[in-house]
């Protein structure tokens, strides 16, 4: 459903975050992206800043693919992180 609305269909299981060498809070950043794209939520810019204050920004992704290998949804996380970076950074 989310992908049909232009969002990222992440279930926020957080499996991807443990192995991320850049400490990117991937599900939180995807949530900000979905809020902005689907609901035009102006707060999403603020919350993107909150989530990246102590962890990596979407643009800090080094493309190691650890997140994609463990994702039970088989999402193209690296591609989505690039879209998030373009939207917020």
Task: Kindly describe this structure.
It is a single chain. The chain has about 90 residues and is an all-alpha fold. The protein is built from five helices and no strands.
Please summarize the sheet with the most strands.
none
Total count of helical runs of at least 4 residues = 5
Q: Give the uncertain stretches in residue-range form.
A: none
Radius of gyration: 12 Å
Give me the secondary-structure topology:
Elements: H1 15-18, H2 26-39, H3 43-53, H4 66-70, H5 77-88
Helix pairs in contact: 2-3, 2-5
In short:
By secondary structure, the chain is mostly helical. The protein is built from five helices and no strands.
Index terms:
single chain; globular; mainly alpha; about 90 residues
């Amino acid at each position: 459903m989310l992908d049909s609305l232009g969002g990222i269909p992440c279930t926020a299981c957080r499996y991807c975050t443990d192995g991320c060498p850049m400490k990117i809070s991937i599900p939180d950043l995807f949530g900000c992206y979905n809020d902005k794209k689907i609901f035009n939520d102006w707060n999403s810019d603020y919350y993107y800043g909150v989530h990246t204050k102590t962890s990596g920004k979407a643009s800090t992704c080094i493309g190691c693919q650890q997140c994609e290998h463990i994702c039970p949804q088989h999402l193209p996380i690296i591609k989505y992180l690039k879209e998030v970076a373009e939207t917020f950074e």
